[in-house]
Amino acid sequence: MGSNPTLSARKPMEKHDVIIIGGGPSGATLSHFLKDMGIDSVVIEKGDHFREKVCAGGLPLGIFDILPQSVSRDFEYVPYRTFRVLHKGIVEESVTFDRPFAFGVMRKNFDEHLRNNLDVRYGEEFVSFEEHANEVIVKTNKNVYSGAFLVGADGIGSKVALLANLNKKTKIIIAEEKELRKENNSDDALNVYLGYNFLGYGWKFTKKDFISVGAGAMKKFYKKGVSNLIDPTYADIKIYPISLWDGDYNIAKGRVALVGEAASIVDPFNAAGIYHSILSSKLLSEVILDNLKKRSKDFSQYLNLLESTIFEEFRYGSALSNAFYPFLPIIKRVILNKRILEFIIRTQEDIGYLSYKEVFKRFEKSKRLEIKLIYAILKILKFM
Ligand SMILES: Cc1cc2nc3c(=O)[nH]c(=O)nc-3n(C[C@H](O)[C@H](O)[C@H](O)COP(=O)(O)OP(=O)(O)OC[C@H]3O[C@@H](n4cnc5c(N)ncnc54)[C@H](O)[C@@H]3O)c2cc1C
Questions:
Q1: What's the pLDDT tens digit per position in 270-313?
Q2: Which of 54, 94, 97, 185 matches a 20 to 30 Å C-alpha distance to 165?
Q3: Distance of alpha carbon 310 from alpha carbon 370, whole angstroms
Q4: By mean pLDDT, which of 166-180, 240-254, 327-341, 345-359 is the weakest?
Q5: Domains plus CATH for the chain?
Q6: Within a 10 A sphere around the Cβ of 74, how many other Cβ atoms?
Q7: Ligand 1 pocket: which of 59, 61, 261 to mutate (most atoms <8 Å of CB)?
Q8: What distance lies between CA 237 and its chain's CA centroid?
Q9: Looking at ligand 1, which atom is closest to the CA of residue 214?
C-alpha cells in the first residue's frame, strides 16, 4: 500500500507499537488509552500546540466517564443546565434542569489538555505508508517510523483513509462558526436555532470567555450567514465540513484502522463527534491490545464493538434525523414542547450522552398520546 517502495531505505527508522496520525480528540485519547495499557505509541500532528479547530465544543455529561484514566478531569468548561429551542429566532421552549446535562469547551484548550504527557510530534505531516507482513512503515515530512499498526485519527480530510482506500465520506454537512467575546450578562444556556436552514440547525452557547455562534446544514442546502441571523454581532465566520456517519463499515484493513471523524464517526442527528470519537478510540485500544498479545492483525472485533455500541445508536439517530429535519414545519408543534424536550434531555442526563436507542425505548413505554404518535413515525422510518 502507500506508494514509495524505497521508503524504508532512506533513514533509520523509529519504532513504536502504534503510529497515530492526528492529535485531535480521537488520536490523543487513543494514545492515552494505549499508554494506560502499557502500549507504546507516537502521535503525528501537523498542527502546532493550541491548534485551532472550527468546532462549537459542546460535550455531553458522560465525557467525564469515558476519558482515559491518565487524562485529568481538571479542564476548563462551562456547564449548561438550560436547553432552549428557538424557531426563526422566537423561543419555542426552554427547559432548566437541576444539574448540568452538557458542557462547553474551547477546542484548542481541550485538545491541548488531551495531548498532555503524550509523545506528540507537532508540525509533522503524514505523507505515506507501506504495509509489510509484520509491520507498517510510515513516512512523514520529517521522519520514517515502523509500527505494528497505523491508525488514522486525521479527521475529515483523512489521508490515511484515502491511501488505504478506507471510508469514503458521503454524508457531508457544511458548518460555520464565529466566536464572540462574552458579555457579563450572557446566559449559560444551550440555545438551538431551527427554521433558518433546511436540513440543519444553528446554535449559540457560551464558553469561558467566548460565545460560539454557528449553523450547519447538509451540503446541498448550506447557506452562508445563518450565524448572522442568530446573532448579528460581527466576527470572522469560519466554515468547515463535517462527515456524518453513513453506515460505512470499511474502516479497518490489514494493519491500518481509522478512528473518530476519519472513520465518519459523527452523530447523524446532531453532528457532534467528540464523545463518539473518544469512544471509538477506547474500543480500538482494546482490540490493538488483543492483536499485540496474539501477534495478529484482526480488526473484526473492532467492527463488532463499534456495531454494538456506536453504530447501533447511530442507526436510531439516523431514523430520528430522517423524521425530524425534513418534516420540521409539520411536526414542530408536536415535538417542540417542554415535556418532549425534558424527556429527551433527561435521557442524556441518565445515560451520559444523547442515546437515541434509549429515547426510542422510553418513547415505546410512554403512555402519552403525542409520544406514542412520534414513536410510531420513528419506528416506520427506522425500518424503512
Ligand atoms: C462548526 C463545527 C462545530 C462542531 N461542534 C461540535 C460540538 O459542539 N460537539 C462535538 O462533539 N463535535 C462537534 N463538531 C465535530 C467535531 O469537531 C469532530 O467530530 C471532532 O473534532 C473529531 O475529532 P477527531 O480527533 O476525529 O478529528 P479532528 O479533531 O479533526 O483532528 C484531526 C487531527 O489530525 C491532524 N491531521 C490531519 N491530517 C494530518 C496529516 N496528514 N498529518 C498529521 N496530522 C494530521 C489535524 O491537524 C487534527 O489535529 C463540530 C464540527 C464543526 C465543523
A1: 999 999 999 999 999 999 999 999 999 999 999 999 999 999 99
A2: 54
A3: 28
A4: 327-341
A5: 7-312 (3.50.50.60), 316-382 (no CATH)
A6: 6
A7: 261
A8: 21
A9: 1
How far away, in angstroms, is 353 Cα from ligand 1 center?
A: 19
DSSP string, 211-280: EEEEEEEEGGG--TTHHHHH-------EEEEEE---S----EETTEEE-GGGGT---TTT---HHHHHHH
How does residue 187 score in pLDDT terms, banded at 50, 70 and 90? confident
The values of phi and psi at residue 94, to 5°, are: -140, 130
Length of the chain: 384
What would the grid cell of residue 345 be?
Answer: 434531555
| SS3 of residue 342 by DSSP | helix
Q: Which of 97-111, 152-166, 183-197 has the lowest mean pLDDT?
A: 183-197
Residue nearest to atom 30 of ligand 1 (CA): 155
Non-local (6+) Cβ contacts of 13 within 8 A are: 137, 144, 145, 146
* C-alpha of residue 152 to centroid of ligand 1, in Å: 12
